[in-house]
Automatic annotation (TrEMBL):
Organism: Streptomyces griseoloalbus
Organism lineage string: Bacteria, Bacillati, Actinomycetota, Actinomycetes, Kitasatosporales
InterPro entries, A to Z: Lipid/polyisoprenoid-bd_YceI, TTHA0802/YceI-like_sf
Highest taxon above the source species: Bacteria
Name of protein: YceI family protein
Lipid/polyisoprenoid-binding YceI-like domain segment(s): 96-265
Residues passing through the membrane, by range: none
Pfam families membership: YceI
Family named by the database record: Belongs to the UPF0312 family.
Amino acid sequence: MPLTARIRTRDGWAVSHSVVTVTDATGTQVLRAEADAEGVVRDTTALAPGAYTVIVTAVGYAPAAASSIVTASGRAEVGTVTLARQGGTELPPPGPWTVDPAHSSVAAVARHLGISSVRGRFTEFAATVEVAPDDIAKSRVEAVIRAASIDTGNGMRDTHLRSADFLDVERYPEITYRSTGLTAAGSDRWTVHGELAMRGVVRPVDLDLAHLGTGADPWGGTRAAFRATAELRREDFAMNYNQVLQAGIAAIGTTLRVELDIQAVQGASLPAA
């Protein structure tokens, strides 16, 4: 087994579709091999002792190069080669991911009386993420929120928020978000472009998204964590109700800050509890 190598992302995940090319001191290609499903290259081609350059490529990743010395025994152990996403951006492994609502939060914050904030959250929602294998910009997000699940910790206020003055949940029971594109904003940050449908109005809304990491969970699955924020104007979604106090201060601010703390599980559906 003259050549062995392990191809990984920065998070330690296998890059199963990577290709290893080996050139000798003259730049001549002497070997080309593909990684297996575990991101491991094992090739039995006999190589003459000497110095070689190992180039690793994979669609969606920046190429990486490493040096290797073939000993007199004919073995060459390259070790682990780490690939970075093209453009320096990192995402979880490609494929479908399902948001776990039990370990996620969809919250909104509004100014109250001009001096403090009121925080609410939606307790019923579902969402999926599709990480594109070749072009990050083609990754997709879709989410559905039950509007009536709004919870601010005050029953009277929640009833008002469900009324026609605000969410109008009888006529518009669902709030939906569908992404239309993704733009890199740093090594682990993106701007998600999408359309938010709420109260019968569809508006473009961008999410500032950060990937917080990916790893194994105690139930045998793989999880990825994200945090996203956005700002909405209530008037953009026909929520024009307001009460103006004697001092001319609006009781409820016109701008909402949306805060999403998300855990997604690898796969098209959540595993059984």
